[in-house]
Write a structure and sequence with these properties.
4-stranded antiparallel sheet; mainly beta; globular; 9 strands
Length: 166
Amino acid sequence: MSIEDNKVVSLEYELKEKGGDQVLDSNKGQAPLDFITGKSQIIPGLERKLKELSVGEQADIEVPAAEAYGEFNPDAFDDVPKEQFAGIDLQPGLPLYGQGENGETIQVTVKEIKDDVVTIDYNHPLAGKDLVFSVNVLGVRDATDDELISGQVGGGCQDGSCGCGA
């Protein structure tokens, strides 16, 4: 079965920075990554290249920074009052999670700690990096109606919160 929009893809992967040997992320030996194509659930450059593969195929997929986590933005820093981090043991490099303007979860990184402010880096930790995904396509199937409505593999919505009217 070919990989096109509205398919559930099961994927095994290992992620490295292009030209590097360090594994940055991997699900090898763990549960596969399951996602619905065409729903922006994975980075665009990876999804686009996966559509050229089929079940059982393995490939090394290079994804340039612009099609992964974006280019590094030197202006994506902000000084936040230190009091907003009460109870957190702040250290430079510490990842923090918060809510973006549209309610989405965003990851930021503590860049610098000063007397009364904390400098936050809003760039994704992999921004500006060209990536290589070593992938193995384990399965492809049609997404169910529930999955298409909820946007989650397996449906996931029992209470109507996804807008399905349950």
